Amino acid sequence: xxxxxxxxxxxxxxxxxxxxxxxxxxxxxxxxxxxxxxxxxxxxxxxxxxxxxxxxxxxxxxxxxxxxxxxxxxxxxxxxxxxxxxxxxxxxxxxxxxxxxxxxxxxxxxxxxxxxxxxxxxxxxxxxxxxxxxxxxxxxxxxxxxxxxxxxxxxxxxxxxxxxxxxxxxxxxxxxxxxxxxxxxxxxxxxxxxxxxxxxxxxxxxxxxxxxxxxxxx
Length: 218
Ligand SMILES: [Zn+2]
Ligand SMILES: [Zn+2]
Prior knowledge:
The protein has helices spanning 8-22, 25-30, 37-48, 54-57, 80-88, 95-113, 148-153, 170-179, 182-187, 192-196, 199-209; strands spanning 138-141, 165-168. It has 218 residues and is mostly helical. It folds into 2 domains: 8-113, no CATH class; 138-216, no CATH class. Strands 1-2 form a two-stranded antiparallel sheet. Helix 1 (8-22) packs across helix 3, helix 5 crosses helix 6 (95-113) and helix 8 (170-179) packs antiparallel against helix 11. The longest helix is centred in the middle third of the chain and has 19 residues, at 95-113.
């Protein structure tokens, strides 16, 4: 049955779910190749999405002042299929745990969709350096700007290294900042190769590469 393409918000919600699932030790331990993750994340998103408040489902930078904080929501109408699925995969212990999991996902989702519009080069047509999709790209400072002064003072990098950037799509960019602190990025993961050497990034990249509908997200 043909269905409408998901809104950017639903795409961001699905990505936020996938990130939290990938970050859960229980899931990672039992699954060498999470090939089913895109389907699983899309299923959970499809179940939970219609029951979320409209202000959450249409959240954006423009509406950020009117978006309810996830910890103020009861989430009472979340279908039991969501809690059942999360519990049976070992992602939470019970229904309360499932709602707590969902709240963390929604926190990630809100900060993602309410972030200021990303800066990207509209003319840039090459692929994201993590998921290899040809989608709008943002630039990621491999040594985060907030640490440039410290990196020079401590001798972590020569001055010319500080301008190095990687071109990443927005979902991959968010993921990179979610798996490592600015200091870890500056000291250890300051090349694309080093980022791609991380198992969590590899798992994410496999997931993201399959998200064709992410094409319009900047
Ligand atoms: Zn990407
Ligand atoms: Zn960045």
